[in-house]
Amino acid sequence: MQPLFTEEEVSEQLKVTVACLRKWRLLGKGPRYVKVGNRVRYAPEDLTGWLATQPAGGTIPQERLHDSKLKRMAVPA
To answer: Residue 39: phi, psi to the nearest 5?
Structure first.
């Protein structure tokens, strides 16, 4: 069995506060977690899987280009 991460370790890795992780749990967002007694723990593979589902990129979807602010920011081809 591989070791589980604490809230503090996960907050440090994700660069968010422990309070943010707790809010995500309350809202049903964020990485999957397990309760060990009254303690919250995170499995490394759950963090990896959750991160893989998060939006990434640096391009603006074509359907959003109609937004006037985005048009001004668009770089000409």
So the answer is: -105, 145
Predicted pLDDT of residue 18:
97
- For the chain, domains (ranges, CATH) are 1-54 (3.90.105)
Read off the tokens for 41: 């723990």
- Of 30, 9, 12, give the one whose Cα is nearest residue 21: 30
- DSSP class of residue 64 equals G
CA pair distance 76, 65, nearest whole angstrom: 12
Is the whole-model pTM more than 0.85?
Answer: no
- Which of 56, 42, 38, 39 minimizes the C-alpha distance to 13? 42
Confirm if 25 and 39 have CB atoms less than 8 A apart. Answer: no
Can you tell me the distance from the alpha carbon of 29 to that of 37, in angstroms, rounded to the nearest whole number?
A: 21
* Lookup: tokens for 67: 């937004």
